[in-house]
Design a protein that fits this description.
single chain, Rossmann fold, Threonyl-tRNA Synthetase, Chain A, domain 2, five-stranded parallel β-sheet, four-stranded antiparallel β-sheet, 20% strand, globular, HAD-SF-IIB-MPGP
């Protein structure tokens, strides 16, 4: 088990993990947030939220000097001191948002698929779907490389939609509330691996990675890290991990930030 002063990096999902599913509070996790900050352990927000949403949360959590992963891995944002003259603030994998929207609208018109995405509705509707305020919903609609969908059709049409998207170089990832359409090469696992490699290069030594998440869109992240915390979710989806090192996987019996803290208590030893 790692110690707090080991070369740790921690990747965390937000909704239903660090943030409570109902009220988006992280207060039960604050003692561990303070310990990680004092030990200078990087805490990398890894979420389906947009860059605009994560930037506000980063500020509230005092994490503005850390990278973050947004839109389910389609975007990696690097802090200013990570950039050189050739670097860009965002590492974007896959198609951009306008292209994704254009493909989705065309497929819906052609096959009469029954779905609605954020680009089809107002901030008020997104607020009703998510429980966010309208101002927060507006931030959630500032998308760069993915589109959340609610599916209203049948299973046969859904399978057809997946095949159509695959032909267009897009994929569907299941989140807590929505399906997310993004480039086939994007994903939390790929983004976690990319950032882990960057940390190893910067430090000149191997890093020990830990991931915490509660939903199906977290599975690739939980398979890419050394230690995985599967937080009890507010859903009925199975969370199977393709890992043989079962001692490095912990499943919590508490949801949200309580489960998040439970996972860190299980794995991290304080000297």
């Amino acid at each position: 088990m790692p110690y707090l002063d080991d070369p740790l990096i921690i990747f965390t999902d937000l909704d239903g993990s660090l943030l409570d599913h109902h009220d988006y509070s992280w207060q039960p996790a604050q003692p561990w947030l303070d310990k990680l900050s004092a030990a200078q352990v990087p805490l990398i927000l890894t979420t389906s939220k947009t860059s605009a949403e994560v930037a506000e949360l980063q500020s509230a959590l005092n994490l503005t000097q850390q990278p973050f992963i947004a839109e389910n891995g389609a975007i990696i944002h690097l802090p200013p001191d990570w950039r050189d003259e050739a670097a860009v603030p965002f590492h974007i994998s896959g198609a951009g948002y306008p292209e994704i929207r254009q493909i989705l609208v065309a497929l819906r018109q052609r096959y009469d698929f029954e779905f609605r995405g954020f680009g089809d509705v107002t901030a008020r509707q997104v607020a009703l779907w998510t429980g966010l305020t309208e101002e927060e919903a507006a931030l959630a609609m500032q998308r760069d490389a993915s589109e959340p969908l609610l599916w209203f059709g049948n299973d046969l049409d859904f399978a057809r939609l997946k095949k159509c998207l695959m032909r267009e170089g897009l994929s569907l990832t299941r989140g807590g509330r929505f399906w997310h359409v993004m480039g086939t090469g994007a994903g939390k696992g790929q983004a976690v691996q990319w950032l882990s490699d960057r940390y190893q290069q910067k430090r000149g030594q191997p890093v020990i990675s830990m991931g915490l998440g509660d939903g199906p869109n977290d599975l690739s992240m939980l398979e890419a890290v050394n230690y995985a915390v599967v937080i009890k979710g507010h859903h009925e989806h199975e969370m199977p991990l393709q890992r043989e090192d079962v001692a490095h996987v912990f499943r919590t019996d508490a949801p949200g930030p309580h489960g998040w803290s439970q996972g860190l208590n299980h794995f991290i030893t304080l000297r």
